[in-house]
Amino acid sequence: MEEGEIKVKSLQKALTILNCFVKKSRLGVTEISELLDLNKSNVHNILTTFQAMNYLEQDPESGKYQLGLGILELCQSVGDRFNIRKVMMPYMQEIADATGEVVYLAVPRDDEMVYLEAMHPVESYNMMRVILGEHAKMYCTGIGKAVLAHLPETVVENYITRGLIAFTENTITDPDVLREDLAVTRERGYSVDNMEHEFGVKCVGMPVFNRRGELLAAVSVSGPSLRFSAGRIEDIVRIMRASLKKARELI
Q1: In the predicted model, is pLDDT for residue 58 greater than 60?
Q2: Burial of 20 (0-12, 13-18, 19+ CB in 10 A)
Q3: pTM of this prediction?
Q4: What are the backbone angles phi and psi of residue 103, rounded to the nearest 5°?
């Protein structure tokens, strides 16, 4: 956004503070003050205002703040605007029930994926957690690589130049290895996260296209690595392809 478009500087400052919680889930007054080079008293007043509006919550022990339920309600409202979310939910549930694993839906935003929805197998609904609005890197997640593999080469190269940080010992940090992995993903139509973002967790990802062939999002099936043998991955891919083919006709 251009500087000239900012009409209310105080609002800009408040939202800049709120945006700090995108990168780090818990922050204190001093941390934010130093990060943004703002007066601590000013930061405290803004934080307590957000707290009063339920956009932030304060940990009584540490005194640090974190996003509150008010933000979740806003995110839910935004999520409902995405037609793809409404279309995909029954097919995600179909995949979850058929595979017995958690299914995620995310859309690309800059160099990350933003999660819109998660569907769990019926028998594990008690284990559900809120995923809406969470972020993940593209290069080390199944859901991200499914998208990255179909982006223009110039975009991918620009992405790689920003650096590939290791999350686990399996994270692909060599640009050439990542390029090859993305080429394989593109050719076979699905990605595999081999414990590259979180140790002990594997994911299978697939891009979501509309009827015009435009890339909109990605879906992934995630679970404990011990359950994701080569044969099981083939079964999961078959299930995902069947469900996504039906969903594509409605997007």
Answers
A1: yes
A2: middle
A3: 0.69
A4: -120, 130
